Amino acid sequence: MFLTNTSASMATESIEKLAAELAGSFEKVEQRRQSWQTATKPLLMNKLQEITEKIKLDWSVNLNDMLVNLESVFISFNPIPSGIMEKSPINVINKMQIGGFLSFSQTRNGQIVAWISMPLIEGLEEGPAQNQTLETLEPEEIDDQTINNHVEKFLDEILQWLNENRDEIGFARHLKP
To answer: How far is CA 21 from CA 25, 33, 41, in A?
Structure first.
């Protein structure tokens, strides 16, 4: 089948339109990454640090920048004794509560995902920690109020984790061979 000049011209217009859209998407990704580096990341670091200094909990602010343009700024609880101890005839092992963090992470397209990872009790809980995505944002949408809202949600989820029984009942599931 041969294309007429009119149908060939329409096909080319469609390709040109898609190519222009693709070029715009590449530009938008680059703008998001620039915004992250120049405004959003410093804002997150400063605001979360301000919160940790004002609210005295055993937590800290960290930056994961091992992958450029796939970075994250997060506030996390430091490991603490859970109060659960494993006794044997020769020693007592204190099980540590590890994790529990709120992360603002860059995605491959430069958008920012706010998400929570719940704590785990070392040696008692199997598998990865439960994660909850809160929201996907453009870098410029992140401001003090957005950060405060997500920290509030994070603390509320940690409180629920501490105060509610979400685990299965039983002893055998907790012991690793």
So the answer is: 6, 19, 28
Question: Rounded to whole angstroms, how far apart are CA atoms 49 and 44?
Answer: 8
> Can you give the residue range of the structural domain that contains 149?
5-174
Report pTM.
0.82
86-142: per-residue pLDDT in tens?
A: 888 899 888 888 889 999 999 999 999 999 999 988 877 777 888 999 999 999 999
DSSP per residue, 107-157: -TTS-EEEEEE--EETTTS-SSPPEEEEEEE-GGG--HHHHHHHHHHHHHH
Structural domains counted in the chain: 1
